[in-house]
């Protein structure tokens, strides 16, 4: 699906460097290939914006200005997810240049998002790696469990999250991660939604759960602090708008409010 970009090709242009994207005045470049010196480079159309093609350009070693994809969470979901797609594809192409079966050089497939071994006797095909990760908000009556992770020490309090292990259901991963990180056992685990998370290749699968038993006991290498917060009391700094974490927190706070009302 990769092709040489012609001088007159036009549309929106997505240039990536890791999980960063090239922006001009906070906007994706739009226009002819020549306007942005990408003619002759390899690229592919990965979607459409305003009925214009969105071109993913091979990752370049250049001096353009690149900005964190995380900072674009305010964008409409459809557009943000397209950008995630591009970032994840370039990460995949850059990290799968040799065959994991025979060691030969890989090439990008022509019929789908994949890479295929050039060795005539192998032709092993590999697809973009997507790592499923659960994320869960836990409620105890009219309180929500929020954790300050070591990587956010002193800052954001958020939900519990972690990668799904081999031979494990999403629900089992939810129960395991909550117990490992906080010592809390949960019940009534239910699916809410998901979010592509291109840092570099995760799929966040969101859940709500209710407290069953236990007292907070921190996994200190992962969690700096964790507390129960009442829905009607001041809350700590929360994840930014656009994250599935904040959506789960907001839904749980609404359930906390309903629970408090039913008690009265």
UniProtKB/TrEMBL annotation:
MF (Gene Ontology): magnesium ion binding; manganese ion binding; NAD+ diphosphatase activity; NADH pyrophosphatase activity; zinc ion binding
Record-listed a divalent metal cation 1 binding positions: 161, 181, 222
Nudix hydrolase domain location: 128-252
Record-listed Zn(2+) binding positions: 99, 102, 117, 122
Cofactor note: Binds 1 zinc ion per subunit.
Enzyme Commission (EC) number: 3.6.1.-, 3.6.1.22
Binding site for substrate: 70, 112, 127, 195-202, 245
Binding positions (a divalent metal cation 2): 177
Record: residues binding a divalent metal cation 3: 177, 181, 222
Functional description taken from the UniProt entry: mRNA decapping enzyme that specifically removes the nicotinamide adenine dinucleotide (NAD) cap from a subset of mRNAs by hydrolyzing the diphosphate linkage to produce nicotinamide mononucleotide (NMN) and 5' monophosphate mRNA. The NAD-cap is present at the 5'-end of some mRNAs and stabilizes RNA against 5'-processing. Has preference for mRNAs with a 5'-end purine. Catalyzes the hydrolysis of a broad range of dinucleotide pyrophosphates.
Protein name: NAD-capped RNA hydrolase NudC
Catalytic class of the enzyme: hydrolase
Organism this protein belongs to: Canicola haemoglobinophilus
Subunit structure: Homodimer.
UniProt-listed PANTHER family: NAD-CAPPED RNA HYDROLASE NUDT12, NUDIX HYDROLASE, NUDC SUBFAMILY
InterPro entries xref list: NAD-cap_RNA_hydrolase_NudC (IPR050241), NudC-like_C (IPR049734), Nudix_hydrolase (IPR020476), NUDIX_hydrolase-like_dom_sf (IPR015797), NUDIX_hydrolase_CS (IPR020084), NUDIX_hydrolase_dom (IPR000086), RNA_Hydrolase_NudC (IPR022925), Znr_NADH_PPase (IPR015376)
GO BP of this protein: NAD+ catabolic process; NADP+ catabolic process
């Amino acid at each position: 699906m990769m092709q040489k970009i012609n001088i007159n090709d036009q549309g929106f242009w997505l240039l990536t460097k890791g999980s960063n994207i090239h922006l001009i005045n906070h906007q994706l470049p739009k226009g002819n290939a020549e306007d942005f010196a990408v003619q002759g480079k390899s690229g592919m159309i990965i979607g459409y914006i305003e009925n214009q093609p969105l071109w993913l350009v091979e990752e370049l070693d250049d001096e353009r200005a690149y900005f964190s994809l995380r900072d674009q969470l305010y964008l409409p979901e459809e557009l943000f997810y397209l950008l995630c797609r591009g970032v994840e594809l370039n990460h995949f192409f850059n990290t799968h240049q040799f065959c994991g079966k025979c060691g030969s050089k890989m090439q990008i497939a022509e019929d789908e998002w994949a890479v295929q071994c050039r060795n005539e006797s192998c032709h092993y095909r590999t697809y973009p790696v997507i790592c499923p990760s659960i994320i869960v908000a836990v409620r105890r009556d009219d309180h929500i469990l929020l954790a300050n992770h070591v990587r956010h020490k002193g800052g954001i309090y958020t939900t519990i999250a972690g990668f799904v292990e081999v031979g494990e259901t999403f629900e089992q991963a939810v129960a395991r991660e909550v117990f490992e990180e906080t010592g809390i056992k949960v019940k009534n685990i239910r699916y809410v939604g998901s979010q592509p998370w291109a840092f570099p290749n995760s799929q966040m699968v969101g859940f709500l759960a209710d407290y069953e038993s236990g007292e907070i006991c921190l996994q200190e290498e992962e969690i700096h602090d964790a507390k129960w917060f009442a829905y009607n009391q001041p809350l700590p700094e929360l994840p930014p708008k656009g994250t599935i974490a904040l959506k789960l927190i907001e839904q749980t706070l609404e359930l906390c409010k309903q629970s408090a009302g039913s008690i009265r």
